[in-house]
């Protein structure tokens, strides 16, 4: 059983740092010396999808620059409240897949486990921004049911811990979770999808390394880094022990207008990732969620950009340009016409 309540008894250091995060737009703008830019609409947008930014992530932003690409990812703006046709509140139709269980089995051989709704940072383009997490909070005894489901299905070889952000769980909870999973004989791979190390490198602490060290499953960590400036010296340092443990480090980015939609930024991002020991995996076309349309880059431009990246990067540093389509058997590479059933 995952000890849901005990974990709060001892607060880990990174959890204290999370508690100190910016929770109000005006606090962050004040810190960035941008207070004159504060507009009532920012606060209003922040009401519908709460505002949350770690102090560490804020420290990577350029002071005095309202167009900073890191700030743009977290700053609520009036455009979020505009209704844009073609953008829905549940673009991936996850609610129908969910069935209240916290287990998404969309693709062959892999299941995605929604471990928590919490994130260390709230990205404005997030496709889960309207997701009714609270309706999907797992009852405590549900974990055993989930493990049972995985145990019964021999075709599952990989479990992906997702969320929210799985690394917002305490180390003791993660340890129990990983122990349960590695007891399932037919599982071979464990994957963790997380943005937390990027916004709080201290999260990769010694107890977490112990959890990984004790685990027999072939493990990968898929980070979510969108801009070269998110690869801080602190992150690179924190990733070193994971590399030494043989954890495979991958990155998925989201293509975002005025954040990373230039060839120069993308080339730099993928080169810097490699310097940090991370391989590019996916470059996602934005999921069409209401409130995020102002980040959207059309497929035609995305393909042009991808071609420009391909001309400048070694093949192993070129992420696959993909879009997720509900009901498809995998993420689909662009152009969509190239995919076969
Ligand atoms: C993205 C995703 C996966 C993983 O897909 P890969 O192509 O293996 O990275 C698995 N399950 C679900 C539900 C997903 O959304
Ligand atoms: S799930 Fe990922 S993209 Fe969405 S808010 Fe959390 S960290 Fe950001």
Describe the 3D structure.
The chain is α/β, with parallel strands linked by helices and 341 residues long. It folds into two domains: 6-81, no CATH class; 94-340, TIM Barrel (Alpha-Beta Barrel). The chain is built from 13 helices and nine strands. The protein has a nine-stranded mixed β-sheet with strand order 1-2-3-4-5-6-7-8-9. α8 runs parallel beside α10 (206-213) and α12 (263-275) crosses α13 (299-312). The longest helix has 14 residues, at 299-312. It is globular. Mean pLDDT is 91; it is low at 1-7. Iron/sulfur cluster binds at residues 119, 121-123, 126, 128, 164-165, 195, 224.
Major β-sheet profile: 9 strands, mixed
Low confidence ranges: 1-7
Number of strands: 9
Sketch the topology as an H/E string, one letter per element. HHHHHHEEHEHEHHEHEHEHEE
Query: What percent strand?
Result: 5-15%
Rg estimate, integer Å = 20 Å
Number of distinct helices: 13
CATH topology of the largest domain: TIM Barrel
For the biggest β-sheet, the strand order reads 1-2-3-4-5-6-7-8-9
Estimate the mean pLDDT confidence: 91
The CATH superfamily of the largest domain bears the name Aldolase class I
Q: Percent helix among the residues?
A: 25-40%
Output the CATH class name of the largest domain. Alpha Beta
**Bound ions, cofactors and other small molecules, one mention each:** pyridoxal-5'-phosphate, iron/sulfur cluster
Overall structural domain count: 2
**Shape designation:** globular
